[in-house]
Amino acid sequence: MDIKQKDQGDITILSLNGRLDLESSTRLKSETDSLITDRHNKLIFDFKGVNFINSSGLGALVSILKNVNSCSGKVILTGLAPYVKEVFEITQLSNIFEIYKDERQAMNKLKSM
Amino acid sequence: MQRTDSNLNEHIKMEMLNSIRSPQIVDELMKALVELTPMLDKEKYRFRVAISEIVTNSYLHGNQQNPERTIWISILILTNRIEIVVEDEGDGFTESAISRKYESDGIYASGGRGIKIAQKIADKIEWYHTDRGTFAVSVCKYYKLPNEEAVESVKVKV
Ligand SMILES: Nc1ncnc2c1ncn2[C@@H]1O[C@H](COP(=O)(O)OP(=O)(O)OP(=O)(O)O)[C@@H](O)[C@H]1O
Ligand SMILES: [Mg+2]
């Protein structure tokens, strides 16, 4: 999986490309955890390029979310394909993740924080 | 490509050394094999996710990430269903192991979702110890016809 980072003020946008499975989720977690601090705690994951996700990817995202929450920050997911979104619903993770259609909505939400 | 043979009957067997890439390799293969079935696109993807959960578990929990251990896969593609058996060299699990991890941390648990996802997607999942000493998980999915899908979405709306 390919991870691209873009910073806009105190907001970090991570664009993910490829599979979010066992091999890539470990990397996603370590790369993301190293970015998060009390002052740098607003994250947008752009899922437009994600074509596969399983529980390994979900587990990594949950642990990132916990880390961000402990820094009083926020995580927003955008651009999920319907079939990718479905596993969030099956596992009820859609209840704890904020999921928006596109990046603009997510930016507006984070800027108003 | 979608085949509509009335007598589908393919049996594919393989074995691979335990590797962190095993789940992805099996998935790339599954991606091609589901195209032999009349499954709907949505179902093809769901099924691939279910299988990836089982293979990931064999690599991690069953074979304990040991590169000298083996994963065996048997794929049976029939007229009305697809059946996969994944075997590893571990001790296996029991029903209670599945929920233990999840129950302690609830929704914020770091894991414990794989089997639940697979159970939700597949029509039947069974696990057992084989005579040759391996642990096996079998996953079965019946092909859904387009009209059955329509009935289901109506049900969900109600
Ligand atoms: N092939 C296996 N061999 C031995 N134990 C297994 C096997 N598959 C699953 N288990 C046990 O069942 C538990 C639940 O598996 P499940 O896939 O639901 O969650 P997980 O693998 O722990 O986390 P996740 O899949 O969410 O990343 C595992 O933690 C493990 O203890
Ligand atoms: Mg698992």
Tell me what the structure shows.
The complex is a heterodimer of chains A (113) and B (158). With 113 residues, chain A is of the alpha/beta class. Chain A contains four helices and five strands. In chain A, strands 1-2-3-4-5 form a five-stranded mixed β-sheet, sandwiched between helices. In chain A, helix 1 packs parallel to helix 2 (55-70). The mean pLDDT of chain B is 90. The A-B interface holds A 19, 21-23, 52-56, 58-59, 62-63, 65-66, 83, 86-87, 90-93, 95-96 and B 20-21, 23-24, 27, 42, 45-46, 48-49, 52-53, 56, 59-60, 107-111, 113-114, 116-117, 120-121. The complex binds adenosine-5'-triphosphate and magnesium ion. Adenosine-5'-triphosphate sits between chains B (53, 57-58, 61-62, 88, 90, 92-93, 97-98, 101, 111-116, 135) and A (55-56, 59).
Brief write-up:
The complex is a heterodimer of chains A (113) and B (158). With 113 residues, chain A is an alpha/beta fold. Chain A has four helices and five strands.
